[in-house]
Amino acid sequence: MNDSSALNKNKFSTKELVLTAMFAAVMAVCSWIAIPIGSIPITLQTFAVFCALGLLGGRNGTFAIAVYILLGAIGLPVFTNFKGGIGALTGPTGGYILGFILMALLYWAGTKLFGHKLPVSIALMAVGLAVCYLFGTIWFVCGYSNGKTKMTFMGALDVCVFPYLPFDIIKLVLATVICSRIKKYISI
Is there a contact between 140 and 156 (Cβ–Cβ < 8 Å)? Predict the structure, then answer.
């Protein structure tokens, strides 16, 4: 392989750029669709992350998630409850949003190593979700425990993970079913 073909392989095509931007927008819209069940609502945000990875693959899905997070970081109201800015990312629940990057990087590396078969994709998304939960929960404990109040790891799991886990499993299953059907008919 010569140097110019290696460079072209690393470049994004126009189609990839458009799909990356589109999925960043889809993540924003899905984060706005919320069912309040306490201090942290149920959203379709993780569903959009699963779809971005399932349809775009590891590389483009990771970049779509990064664009989504960067849009929120600069202040656009793309996060749940129309929040944006660094404060949304550095707050107690910001670790779950930042954990999407870890989920995507794990998916990208896993598909490079093990391929793109459906069982591999499902397993990588499930492990990625667990990593996102772990990172977000540790972040929540550190952000919530501010000297006056303390939060235990189990307490954070009770508040931030256990109520949402069944919904996220349903979102993962729906996303993989939808993505596998879409991929049969559309070349993405």
Answer: yes
How does residue 36 score in pLDDT terms, banded at 50, 70 and 90?
Answer: confident
3-state class of 169 per DSSP? helix
Is residue 1, in this structure, part of any structural domain at all? no
User: CA separation (Å) from 157 to 2, 85, 127, 160, 163?
Assistant: 50, 25, 17, 5, 9
Q: Note whether residue 79 is domain-resident.
A: yes
Number of domains in the chain: 1
Q: Over the stretch 51-77, which tens digit does the pLDDT of each residue have?
A: 999 999 999 999 999 999 999 999 999
In three-state secondary structure terms, 34 is: strand
pTM score, whole prediction: 0.91
Q: Is 69 part of any domain?
A: yes
